[in-house]
């Protein structure tokens, strides 16, 4: 709840007044998209855990599921870090580094998880697509407001 208040105040004071890249959706799209994406991520993680728990110890399936779970928790940590970086600290460059690691990690997770449960692809592919778009939005926001396209070029 506190992080939501921090984000809300930062959006109004810092994000809204600044230039946005073309194609930036209206603000209402973000909570709707993230609600759906987090529900899909939760279901995908359930499928990952089930595959891990049901695999024979020492089997290739167990190793594949183990790697997928590690990738899942890695992407989840990066996901949770992005909002405090971007909105809390107002640091679009570190947030861009974060999301630039998060996006390919999540796409690799989607590929890895599909090896033992193809349903995870349908759950995680929209997340990969959204992260790709969010990476563009993050980079575009920096470019227009603090990068070469701006006159300030500071406040990174």
From TrEMBL:
Keywords: Membrane, Transmembrane, Transmembrane helix. Belongs to the TspO/BZRP family. The keyword Transmembrane helix applies. GO terms for biological process: tetrapyrrole metabolic process. This is TspO/MBR-related protein. It comes from Leucosporidium scottii. One of its GO terms (cellular component) is mitochondrial outer membrane. The chain crosses the membrane at residues 28-52, 120-144. Its main location: membrane. It comes from the Eukaryota. It holds the Pfam family TspO_MBR. It is found in: Membrane. It is a multi-pass membrane protein.
